[in-house]
Design brief:
Blueprint (H helix, E strand, L loop, with lengths): L2 E10 L2 E11 L5 E5 L4 H4 L1 H11 L8 E7 L11 H12 L8 E3 L2 E2 L5 E2 L4 H10 L4 E5 L3 H4 L6 E5 L2 H7 L46 H13 L3 E4 L6 H7 L9 H14 L13 E2 L7 H5 E2 L5 E2 L1 H4 L4 E4 L7 H5 L2 H6 L1 E6 L2 E6 L3 E6 L18 H8 L4 H5 L3 E4 L5 H4 L8 H19 L12 H5 L10 H8 L5 H18 L6 H11 L6
Family: Belongs to the Mg-chelatase subunits D/I family. ComM subfamily.
Protein name: Competence protein ComM
GO molecular function: ATP binding
Length: 519
């Protein structure tokens, strides 16, 4: 045989496409030609593959070897194609039988060791979606790959083991003793068996002294999935409140956990050996670049903090210190729940349905809260400070709350605050009410329901909305702000156990949105 074939997966954002790897052995002078728009890391596979095969006792043919990666118009990136390339080359040389419809994902070391790669979870998901049921990965990626149901996963430590499992007879191995391959059968559903995974040392709301109104605002934000702006002097507890928001959010369901784990698998910062069940928390520094917050980089853009916070919380402390273009770039995902990153090499789409929490001081010096006696900032400096928080961005933030410093009385009574466990129970009950009510419209939380539904089928009767109607008429609210107050009113009602928002719920919702006044 002079033609061999194997399969791999190419990722474009979180979307994977099956790549057919063809290998042909010609009769001309020795050469290794790699076709199909490979990047620099993939181009280097020619030398890695030759050394790995030789050191595994299966040297590649010394004749001209041409490897083609199809589709040819898809840019291929990374070292995860190494294993598929060498398997196709060995099949072309007749050193092993045709591996059939098996997907190979893995990087090869020069000694033949099979190395783990990023993005195994979305790659296996793409393979299963295309009808492939057998996937081979590095043993260190096996647990992550097994999170995808309906697929047989085999994990190996080195190329020699893979080759032997597919019918080759390697000799002179660096790793002569094969380790047993592990597999999960196609009928298993590891979703039910995976353990919940949350942040270590979960922070508790009981640590916060006082701040009853701010604690309620955080509870409302968690119950309805609302965005939140906290404005107040340093030391008032804004960061503490934001850091405790993830602890009162409900666990992710199977579909959400798979999405979140796939993003973190592609990011590669931590091993994803089980589904991430707890909502993530991202808090980039205010000096972070556009690429680190939104996503980007050379070649195909990678996910940023906004995508890593999908189904969780994106916290921007000292929000006016961020570049304005970075803040305004968040307007798209706040509305659509996804990020579309266009580059010359292609377009990557990442989910980004997060809860945005902004924290800001009242002025550049931070002393403008309360009586503001020690503040030395001019009105022009304050306007410049808050100008980075554009009107269109703030209009998308449901809850805008002023936070004052706590006094001695609150600090002296540390046992008065509720724990996160107690608050989380109310939040979970409110989320359940929302899911039951909004199921006909395909929404899971009040923050996701459309304005047309809020003003139509879910509009409260009578004069319940009179105060919001007046705010819209006199210009205190925009049309978007009007809808967001309605969403807040439904969340307040859900927490109180009401079937429909009443006038008090609507007034409380309007108060949560209209407390902050920027200079």
């Amino acid at each position: 045989m002079s033609l061999g074939r194997a399969y791999a997966v190419g990722l474009v954002g979180l979307e994977g496409r099956i790549v057919e790897v063809e290998a042909d052995i010609g009769q001309s002078l020795p050469a290794f030609v790699l076709l199909g728009l490979p990047d620099a890391a993939l181009n280097e596979a020619r030398d890695r593959v030759r050394s790995a095969a030789r050191n595994s006792g299966l040297p590649l043919s010394r004749r001209k070897l041409t490897v083609n990666l199809m589709p040819a118009d898809l840019h291929k990136r990374g070292s995860g194609f190494d294993l598929a390339i060498v398997m196709a080359a060995l099949a072309a040389a007749g050193d092993l039988p045709d591996p059939g419809r098996t997907v190979f994902i893995g990087e090869l070391g020069l000694n033949g060791r099979l190395q783990p790669v990023r993005g195994v979870l979305p790659s296996v998901m793409a393979a299963v979606a295309e009808g492939f049921t057998r996937v081979v990965v590095s043993s260190r990626n096996r647990e992550e790959a097994e999170l995808v149901p309906g697929c047989q996963i085999r994990g190996y430590d080195c190329l020699a083991e893979v080759a032997r499992a597919f019918g080759a007879d390697p000799a002179g191995l660096l790793y002569p003793k094969p380790l047993p391959a592990t597999a999960t059968t196609a009928g298993q559903t590891p979703l039910a068996a995976s353990q919940a995974q949350g942040p270590a040392g979960q922070k508790d709301l009981a640590d916060i002294a006082g701040q009853h109104e701010a604690r309620f605002a955080v509870e409302v934000a968690a119950a309805g999935g609302h965005h939140l702006l906290l404005t107040g002097p340093p030391g008032a507890g804004k960061t503490m409140l934001a850091e405790r928001l993830p602890g009162i959010l409900p666990d992710l369901d199977d579909a959400q956990a798979m999405e979140v784990t796939a993003i973190h698998s592609l990011d590669g910062r931590a091993a994803c050996n089980s589904l991430l069940r707890r909502p993530p928390f991202e808090a980039p520094h205010h000096g972070a670049s556009m690429a680190s917050v939104i996503g980007g980089g050379s070649g195909m853009p990678r996910p940023g903090a906004a995508s890593r916070a999908h189904r969780g919380v994106l916290f921007l402390d000292e929000a006016p210190e961020y570049e304005r273009r970075v803040l305004d770039a968040l307007r798209q995902p706040l509305e659509s729940g996804r990020l579309v990153l266009h580059r010359s090499a292609g377009t990557a789409v990442y989910p980004a349905r997060f809860q945005l929490v902004l924290a800001a001081n009242p002025c550049p010096c931070g002393k403008g809260g309360g009586r503001g006696r020690d503040c030395t900032c001019t009105s022009l400096q304050c306007r410049r400070y808050f100008s980075r928080l554009s009107g269109p961005l703030l209009d998308r933030v449901d809850i805008q709350l002023g936070v004052e410093r706590v006094g001695l009385r609150e600090l002296a009574d540390p046992g008065a605050a509720e724990t996160s466990r107690d608050v989380a129970a109310r939040v979970a009950a409110a989320r359940e009410r929302q899911q039951n009510r909004l199921a006909p419209w395909g929404s899971a939380s009040n923050a996701e329901v459309t304005g047309a539904v809020l003003r139509g089928k879910l509009r409260p009767p009578g004069g319940v909305l009179s105060v919001v109607d007046r705010a819209l008429d006199n210009g205190a609210l925009t049309a978007r702000g009007y809808d967001r107050v309605l969403r807040l009113a439904w969340t307040v009602a859900d927490l109180a156990g009401h079937e429909m928002p009443d006038a008090d719920d609507v007034g409380q919702a309007l108060s949560l949105r209209q407390q902050v006044r920027t200079p």
